[in-house]
Amino acid sequence: MKLTKSLILTLTLFKWISCFSQSISYDIVIKDISVLDVRHSKIIRSQTIYIKDDRIAKIEKSKKYEKILSDTIIEGNGKFILPGFWDMHTHICWKDNLNNLFPTLLGYGITGVRDMGGDVNILNKFKQQIKNNPQSGPIIFGAGPMLDGAEPIHRDFSASLTQNNVQQVLDSLYSQKIDFLKVYSLLPKDVLNSIATFAKEKKISFAGHISEYLTPEEASALGQKSFEHLNRLEELQNDTDRFFTFIKLAKSNNTWLCPTLIIYKRKAEFAKNEFYTHPLYHDLDNDMKNEWEEIKKKWQNKNLTEEEVLYSQKRYENQKKLVKSFYDNGIPLLLGADFAGMQFIYPGYSLHEEMALLNTIGIPPFEILKMATYNPALFFGLTDLYGTVEEKKMADLIILNENPIIDIKNTLNIYTVIKAGKIVKNI
Ligand SMILES: [Zn+2]
């Protein structure tokens, strides 16, 4: 009996010691850092964050004297930590070498993307790559090809749908495990109805442009989950009653807006030369550079009249006001820069431009950071894994050298980036 008791005691002690030693063997510990609580717009100072495998294992108030054993200890004093950014409108899956941009995206703190149209095989190849090696790029949710009408706008990356082939195309995409359906501008009403029915049946979503054949009200009522850009939405601007009726409807249908305001800035300023001398321009692949050069020539040859320039500037001013009105009236926003959908949008960098731009129209930095981090998690129904710096969440994190709440441009002052629990940007 005595022997058994002492054996139990020894075993308990052994268990306690092994638990203890387990509890201190973290992969990364970030000491004494300010956490940006993007959900509640507050800064929580002096926190120590313990990372184990791909998760945030523990967060606690920093102690003055603490003995931490870890392979990697980051001194967070004076620094700020927030969840990784999501670019919710990009086109990275249309060319099979574009995974060479993944390190650039991670370097800019983008740990997740929503691919809004490309090639389904490339999408699946890239997703597999990230699954095998989570540190090699951002997590991707993608649509495969854009679904457009019989005469698609972008032939290369679209499936042209009619009432005759819609079921077959959707079945095929679903069997290839696309994450959602991307709808484009020329889809007829009856085909969109079929897409909406299919999406409901399969419990997936459809998102994209508002079709030219539908009003924004009809698209929202049909269940289109997000509206990309401002297509068709500008028509609400001159009719206050219609605008507010739409707001009510969109909220009741949980319709999101991804305004990609940066593309309208580009459109308004295409005549400017600065885009062609941007340092990141030289890092792009030749095909893309050639495409951009073509557009540059086209714009330079346009010789816009003063009137046309003024018109385009005025339209851009109205587009900014429109985005602000949607924000003011509680329409949930997503941030996207439309890389490869629009020329002179730089991978990674332009999402930061979008953030800075939204700040210039009067949206506070905390709200913008929430749109770039928490809103995507909410949109995908993944708030248990992503979107905040909390225990048990994925360790997809950005550490900034300066406070982005004081100046949103500090999102570019990145100390390091952690993806799935490992440092991916050199410090
Ligand atoms: Zn796009």
Fold topology:
Elements: H1 2-24, E1 26-37, E2 42-52, E3 55-61, E4 70-75, E5 80-83, E6 85-90, H2 102-107, E7 110-115, H3 120-132, E8 139-142, E9 146-148, E10 158-160, H4 166-175, E11 180-183, H5 189-202, E12 205-208, H6 216-222, E13 226-228, H7 240-252, E14 256-258, H8 261-268, H9 286-302, H10 306-328, H11 349-360, H12 365-380, E15 397-400, E16 414-419, E17 422-423
Parallel strand pairs: 1-4, 1-5, 6-7, 7-8, 9-10, 9-11, 11-12, 13-14
Antiparallel strand pairs: 1-2, 2-3, 5-15, 15-16, 16-17
Helix pairs in contact: 8-10
Zinc ion (ZN) binds at residues 89, 91, 116, 338, 341.
Protein described:
This protein has twelve helices and 17 strands. Residues 9-22 have low confidence and may be disordered. The strands form four sheets. Strands 1, 2, 3, 4, 5, 15, 16 and 17 form an eight-stranded mixed beta sheet that branches. Strands 10-9-11-12 form a four-stranded parallel beta sheet, covered by helices on one side. Helix 8 (261-268) runs antiparallel to helix 10 (306-328). The N and C termini lie far apart (58 Å). With 427 residues, the protein is of the alpha/beta class. It is globular and about 65 Å long. It binds zinc ion.
